[in-house]
Structure formats: C-alpha cells, structure tokens
Amino acid sequence: MRHVPHLYIEGDWNAPTVNTTEEQNRHLGKVLRLNKGKPVSYTDGRGRLGTGEWTGTGIVRGEESTWAAPQPLTLAVAVPSSRDRARFVVEKLAELGVPTLVWLDTRWGSGRVPPASKLKAWAVSALEQSRGAFLMETSDTVAQWSDLLEPIAVCSSAGARPEPSNKPRTVVVGPEGGLSSEEIPAGASQVKLGETILRIETAAIAAAIIFRDQ
Questions:
Q1: From start to end of 47-164, where are the E strands?
Q2: Is residue 82 within 8 Å of residue 201, measured between CB atoms?
Q3: N or C: which end of the chain has fewer CB within 10 A?
Q4: In CATH, what is the architecture of 74-211?
Q5: What is the pLDDT along the chain (214 residues), one digit of tens a residue?
Q6: pTM for this structure?
C-alpha cells in the first residue's frame, strides 16, 4: 500500500476545499510524485484530523474527526550548544507528542535559541512525519524559572526514580554544565532518568517518554 502523505493545514477550515502551500504542492507533486486525486490526510494542529483528495493546489475535505487534547506537559530545556542539537530536540519531542517545549534560561547554559520560523518549521515537519493531530507549541522566547508552571520536576543524577503518582506539569532538563543548586526552586522535585549522565537531547527524549502519559 502506498504511503499516504500527512499535511499540516494552518487556519480555520470553512470551505469544502482547503488550500495547500506552494512548498507542500511541490513536495507532493515533484518529490513524492503524487497524482492529483490521490488521498492525503491532514490536520489543523489543534486536534482535528481528516482524510481527503489532493487537487494539486488544495485538499477536498473528506471524513474528519477530533482527538482529545493530550495531558498538559511542558518540557523546559536548556538550549543546546549547536543549532543541529536544538533541531533534534524540537523534532523528537514533537514526534513524541509533547504539547509544549520552552527554552529555559539557566546559569551555566551556553546555547542560543534558533529563530521562531525555524522552530515552527521543525515542529511542523515532525508533526507531518509522525502523523499527529497536535502541533507542539514552542517559541524563541527564553523562559525564566518563575515562568514555569508547577509542579516542577528537575532531571538530576542526584534525584530519585520518578513515581507514577507524581505528575509534574513541567519537567526541566538542564545544560551540559548542570544546574546550580541555587537556581532550582525549593518546591521542585528532582528525578533520576537513569544511571548514566545524559546529553540534553537524550535527557529530553527520556523525560518525554517517562512523563508524557503519566
């Protein structure tokens, strides 16, 4: 069975046909060699999924359904030292269905947040790849500890194994140099992801898997 492309279609859908972008049309027609009239699936990134037919410039809407919103979870991640590693974090967390990613300002962090346009493009690509229904929220704004929603769990080698009954709203992944004990809020719990020291992107993926469905 041939692969059915999955597309993110931004905006409100008020007409029987929704428009696809020039980039999407080029990818479908020239890269995937999809013929007009062939089936595609699509989402608005807010929980609505549908299947329809590609016309060459848009999608004739077909059967649609709405998914329940995921449990609220924010991954607050120190910015990695390179753009490629930041992209990896965005793409993998989006593929795993993490609702929100924020970049956290930490004392020993050294990375720079990529532009908002890049972050969104990476998140959209991951959404389409994973055939998801919700576009992960992220931005180029750097968050402070005081911005984080409680309860907060901080990933730390000195922490305890996560308890299934402990459901944090925000999970923090620190920088390569670790987190200063002075910057961790007094009410935050510390959780251990494993027996080894993980890189930022590895820790972010492990935390997403552990806490996403709690």
A1: 48-54, 58-66, 74-78, 100-104, 142-143, 152-160
A2: no
A3: N
A4: 3-Layer(aba) Sandwich (3.40)
A5: 468 999 999 988 999 999 999 999 999 999 999 999 999 999 999 999 999 999 999 999 999 999 999 999 999 999 999 999 999 999 999 999 999 999 999 998 889 999 999 999 999 999 999 999 999 999 999 999 999 999 999 999 888 887 767 789 999 999 988 899 899 998 899 999 988 889 999 999 999 999 987 6
A6: 0.93
